[in-house]
Write a structure and sequence with these properties.
Blueprint (H helix, E strand, L loop, with lengths): L2 E7 L4 E6 L4 H10 L7 E4 L6 H13 L2 E5 L4 E5 L10 H4 L9 H8 L1 E4 L13 H9 L3 E4 L5 E4 L9 E3 L5 H12 L4 E5 L5 H12 L3 E3 L5 E5 L8 E2 L5 H14 L1 E6 L7 H9 L3 E5 L2 E6 L9 E3 L11 H8 L5 E5 L10 H6 L3 E4 L4 E5 L8 E3 L3 H12 L4 E5 L2 H4 L5 H7 L3 E7 L8
Parallel strand pairs: 2-14, 3-13, 9-10, 17-18, 21-22
Antiparallel strand pairs: 1-22, 1-23, 3-5, 4-5, 6-8, 7-8, 10-12, 11-12, 14-16, 15-16, 18-20, 19-20
């Protein structure tokens, strides 16, 4: 089957200034929350044209909403006044993890939701039963069926306030239960909530809609239920994960890149780890400058992922790519997802020296150079990882299954080309089908 691939002619340093897209993980929650607005249009600005966002729009339309996305102005208008169905079509919902964010708003709006399954990146066990347990404590009835369906009914279309505790500070779990509690009868206390910046952004979005949420940015949220939320205009935060990817791209390819209109505070630990490796970084207000000479040796690094404000699991694969060129041995410990090392085989094809220990530590012995190869993007961040590795090679690489990269990065080849990279989108008859 003919699909897109990226052709990368590596060995070119990156120079210039750039501005990154807005945060996917904020936007998906906001798109889903628009369902609770019965009158008026929810308007989101600077929405990137990425595949996960397009799948969210397809879900909205399948449920009866009207969605208008101006790709030039990047403005989205959502009219959810005619939502008629609580069934999430499997063909769409199975393609991206963000489909779970539709659970709370559909219960609020229609009193029920039917979920066939959830998709996204295959990065290990990501159970959503704690979402269901939270809904049950808020008054919903959760039913599981042998064919894999889950139906959640909410009598009277109204949650009841309760005390909730998340076993893991999941950002989607926090967002789902935060929205449910925002329109519940009474007060909800949500403990061990996620403190990721995207959750804070979503909480600010809900408060602008009329919610009464306190403690945003802390592990304990106090949420006083209100009767309704209203339509608003909102501009989501910059995407810290795309920002981090561009930072690491500048480090691995060499050069001098400044990224504007970002939130450096969200990337403190990423900045610190890059500086430990010998990369020069300076922060000026809302801008981050990253520079490194290609002749400058990189120092090895130790990284252990953790929930925010720890090192982000989504940037661990990209840092692994950079570590393949360090002068020594780096150690990476993934502590959030149990299959986040899916990029290793592709990096091995490119000449990296990597071993996964029995204790699940990724041990990377630096090599003097990587070699070009034809590899496939298994998920969003693994795709970004092999793309970064290709930038550092001397020769032509091809990255297939670009759909996975497109799920989270808007026109990444144009962004990198703007900085001087030689990256082009081509057609490849060898491309594999997108992994769901």
């Amino acid at each position: 089957m003919i699909q897109s691939a990226l052709r990368v002619l590596g060995g070119k340093p990156l120079y210039g200034e750039i501005q990154v897209q807005r945060a996917k993980n904020s936007i998906l929650a906001m798109i889903a929350a628009s369902i609770v607005v019965e009158h008026g249009e929810t308007i989101l600005h600077d929405v990137p044209d990425i595949e996960d966002v397009q799948r969210a729009f397809e879900l909205l339309r399948a449920l009866g909403a009207r969605v208008r996305h101006d790709r030039v102005s990047k403005t989205v208008r959502i009219d959810a006044s005619n939502i008629t169905s609580g069934l999430l079509p499997e063909a769409i919902a199975s393609q991206f993890r963000g489909s779970v964010l539709f659970l709370a708003p559909l219960q609020i709006r229609l009193g029920y939701v039917e979920l066939p399954g959830s998709g996204g990146c295959d990065i290990g066990t990501r159970k959503i039963d704690f979402h269901h347990r939270g809904f049950a404590r808020l008054g919903a009835n959760v039913q599981y069926f042998e064919d894999g369906r889950t139906i959640i009914d909410l009598e009277g279309r109204r949650f009841r306030g309760a005390s909730l505790y998340l076993d893991l500070p999941s950002h989607t779990g926090t967002e789902n239960l935060m929205l449910a509690a925002a329109l519940a009868d009474g007060q909800t206390i949500l403990e061990n909530a996620s403190v990721e910046p995207e959750v804070l952004d979503f909480g600010n979005f809900l408060n602008a809609m009329g919610a009464d949420i306190h403690g945003l940015g802390s592990n304990t949220l106090v949420i006083n239920g209100v009767s309704r939320l209203h339509a608003i205009e909102y501009t989501p935060m910059p995407d810290r994960l795309v920002t981090g990817t561009i930072m690491i791209a500048a480090a691995i390819a060499g050069g001098d890149v400044t990224i504007h209109h970002v939130e450096p505070a969200h990337l403190r630990i990423v900045i610190a780890k890059l500086e430990q490796m010998g990369v020069e970084i300076s922060v000026d207000g809302k801008s981050i400058r990253v520079s490194r000479s290609r002749q400058q040796a990189l120092d090895p690094i130790n990284i252990q992922t953790h929930f925010y404000p720890g090192f982000p699991t989504d940037l661990q694969p990209c840092m692994a790519a950079l570590s393949t060129l360090a002068n020594g041995t780096s150690y990476i410990r993934e502590r959030i997802f149990d299959n986040r090392y899916g990029y290793v085989d592709a990096l091995l094809q490119m000449g990296a020296d990597i071993l996964i220990s029995q204790s699940d530590v990724c041990i990377i012995n630096g090599v003097s150079r990587l070699r070009p190869a034809r590899v496939s993007a298994d998920n969003i961040r693994s795709g970004a990882t092999v793309l970064l590795a290709a930038l550092a090679t001397e020769g032509e690489s091809f990255i297939e299954n670009v759909y996975q990269i497109d799920r989270g990065y808007e026109a990444i080849e144009e962004q990198l080309t703007q900085l001087g990279a030689d990256v082009a989108r081509v057609q490849s008859e060898f491309s594999s089908l997108p992994a769901l």
